[in-house]
Amino acid sequence: MDKKEFTRHEYYRNRELSWLAFNERVLSEARDKTIPLFERLKFLSITASNLDEFFMIRVASLKDMVHAGYTKKDIAGMTPEEQIEEITKEVRGLVALQYSTYSRSLLPALKQNGLHVIQEHEALTKEEARYVDRYFRDNVYPVLTPMAVDSSRPFPLIRNKTLNIGALLQKKGEKNAELEFATVQVPSVLPRIVRLPDSEDGIKNVILLEEIIERNMQQLFLKYDIVSASPYRVMRNADLTIDEDEAADLLKEIQKQLKKRQWGEAIRLEVEEKIDKRLLKILSKELDIKEQALYKINGPLDLTFLMKMYGMEGFDNLKLPKHVPAPVKELPADCNIFDEIRKGDILLHHPYQTFDPVVKFVKDAANDPKVLAIKQTLYRVSGNSPIIAALAQAAENGKQVSVLVELKARFDEENNIIWAKMLEKAGAHVIYGLVGLKTHSKITLVVRREEDGIRRYVHLGTGNYNDSTAKLYTDIGLLTCSAPIGEDATAVFNMLSGYSEPEGWNKLSLAPLWLKDRFLSLIGRETEHARNGGEGRIIAKMNSLCDRDVIVALYEASAAGVQIDLVVRGICCLKVGIPGVSENIRVRSIVGNFLEHSRIFYFYNNGQEEVFCASADWMPRNLEKRVEIMFPIEREELKEEVIHILDIELKDNVKAHVLQPDDTYEKINRRGKAPLSSQDYFAEEAKEKAGVDEHAVNRRVFIPEEPVE
């Protein structure tokens, strides 16, 4: 088949619709009655949080294209306007499913298990009403800022993602007086879930803060009657637009743009389904919301509060036991980490194995008198990062510390600005990313003076240097003192801090330089092996797949007879089962208690197997617009370990969803097969390897029947 044939629009799935299908898979976890009830709350909360970000970034970007008159079609043959239309249809169905899950499945189950969520303040008993009114007077009223709108007070700025209550007011005693509009923000500084006295039968009662405020709206407008009041929430364009070439100071420019997130174009308005039509008309007009961007909700707005509910005490029996990562046998807590790395490369598999060795690597380097320099890239770090503290300590200890802090890491910009300034104050040399590119690579270089000369120690990973998310995201890390990798690591940092680029590279492959070409070459090599009568085999695991050049190469490989298995958590624009095109490609998505985040690539290579890990997905942004690193796993036993990880994930029949030719995902029919959840398997395996006493560490519940970035 001619290569151009593989680029036909009908051979591709639209990126945004594919992402919505992923969020539906997350929602399916919330609907699965075999999963502990509070875990289901968590999954429903994640779908709501995911959808918020989707609108603020992806839908906002499409709206910008429409405003600019951009009509170019995507790889699936859809214009931005057509994409928005299809997204709207899909999201309406998804939201309806979210709320039917909440109202018909989760709320009754919560009540059966001793937690009653009072949905409307009208349903309060007299005793509960007295308690709520007292709570309002003592705790809520002093914090509120009611805002009326009239000729002297214009419609206020309604901040992005905030929950508000709009009201129609009429002056007391003037029945024919014109209705006036007022609004009050539900304060985020107060708990949204308010605990009421327990029932006599021991049931815990809770009500949402907005219901308490709505019940007491009269107290905010004493000279008026409340004609109607309803919660509403607006989502705004939060995609930063920065002209980096024109920005004299990138740090100041990003700080300026961050403030604009609060008043970007309104792209979605959520209102209560029973909202007064007159109130809705005012909100729609003032926020410039068309029917397409209006969502009437049958339930409480913003389901992310369910994550707070998950944290309520007294319901541990309805949650999975807390996962405790296993120690790494090769790296005891009291070891000299550099001595251990010299014995051979060490593979880390998070969150099944602890992230502590990565923290120890930086901490020990900071305090080791033999260490001369530490260099690191930081994309997202935790709120109280021990790695940041160690880097600052290293700088204060007089070591050469160079850190690239990516200021353009979406929604972490403010956090990263704070860390960057702190590190500079400690004496570290801080680089604020590169013009036009995001630095998404995960690499740490430690330069150490030893008896036989200078030695370079390197950590490479698929995930961020974030000790918090390392407990939730599945990632691979490698600790090595390989001289060729050390040379490449030095070259990476010289490139990031200056203009130096070596004539050649030893082991690492970098985007946007030549990583994409490397991937295409590796896929092409399997294609040639198959065409020449050999066996072609590719297994690749990633977060997202939407690069057309890579998909064309995979289609060519499949057509040549290469057997391809893809484990793609989220977006997948490739289609399976197309005759003569993708019959040899299988795609699965694993959605479980941990967020699948590692990027692993296996190529059979006529029996000379090659295995790589990377920070990059197969997406244009990763391969063409970011600094990314792919590194080989060369030590034979470690290579076998990574192949074993892929093998187990391909056998997962509990948390795996398999892509069908009609673009839907289906769970595996397990009839007659023993259940295998890859995440549970790896958790148990890590403890066995470390020799952990099963009574000393909480063991995760194995879910017998059938979490996103």
Automatic annotation (TrEMBL):
InterPro entries: PP_kinase, PP_kinase_C_1, PP_kinase_middle, PP_kinase_middle_dom_sf, PPK_C_dom2, PPK_N_dom, PPK_N_dom_sf. Its EC number is 2.7.4.1. ATP binds at N50, Y473, R569, H597. Pfam families: PP_kinase, PP_kinase_C, PP_kinase_C_1, PP_kinase_N. Its cofactor is Mg(2+). It catalyses: [phosphate](n) + ATP = [phosphate](n+1) + ADP. Mg(2+) binds at R380, R410. Residues 336-501, 508-679 form the Polyphosphate kinase C-terminal domain. This is Polyphosphate kinase. Belongs to the polyphosphate kinase 1 (PPK1) family. GO terms for molecular function: polyphosphate kinase activity. The active site is at H440 (phosphohistidine intermediate). Residues 128-309 form the Polyphosphate kinase middle domain. The lineage of its organism: Bacteria, Bacillati, Bacillota, Clostridia, Lachnospirales. Catalyzes the reversible transfer of the terminal phosphate of ATP to form a long-chain polyphosphate (polyP). An intermediate of this reaction is the autophosphorylated ppk in which a phosphate is covalently linked to a histidine residue through a N-P bond. Residues 12-117 form the Polyphosphate kinase N-terminal domain. Keywords: ATP-binding, Kinase, Magnesium, Metal-binding, Nucleotide-binding, Phosphoprotein, Transferase.
